[in-house]
Amino acid sequence: MKDCLFCQIAGDKSKLVWENAIAAAFPDINPKAPVHVLLVPKKHIESLDHLEDPTLGGQLLEAVAACARSLGIGGGYRVQINVGRTGGQIIDHLHIHIMGGQRFRD
Ligand code: 5GP
Ligand code: ZN
What we know:
This protein is α+β, with helices and mostly antiparallel strands.
């Protein structure tokens, strides 16, 4: 989608730290952990509530694990999806936060 920030970033290979056929990952601009990337479907999907394809849902989770491994945090990381304004979502393109490189205690 032309006006979507995360569609634009996902389409710019120079900004990506990992990608496969269906997903792309790039560093969060305001990292909350030593490693903090956002993994997005390459197809524009507004939020988890708009994900209608369970196959794609599974592929995205598989992509999260593959991305984490490739970033060197496989085996210990945190995954977060914010849904809607109430859930803290500020960018309306489904994104999965992958955070690692530290021990989480809360
Ligand atoms: P949300 O609150 O929607 O789940 O998370 C949006 C995330 O996008 C935030 O963690 C924020 O730091 C990140 N973000 C916002 N604008 C940009 C940007 O222009 N580039 C990148 N890489 N991350 C962004
Ligand atoms: Zn988008």
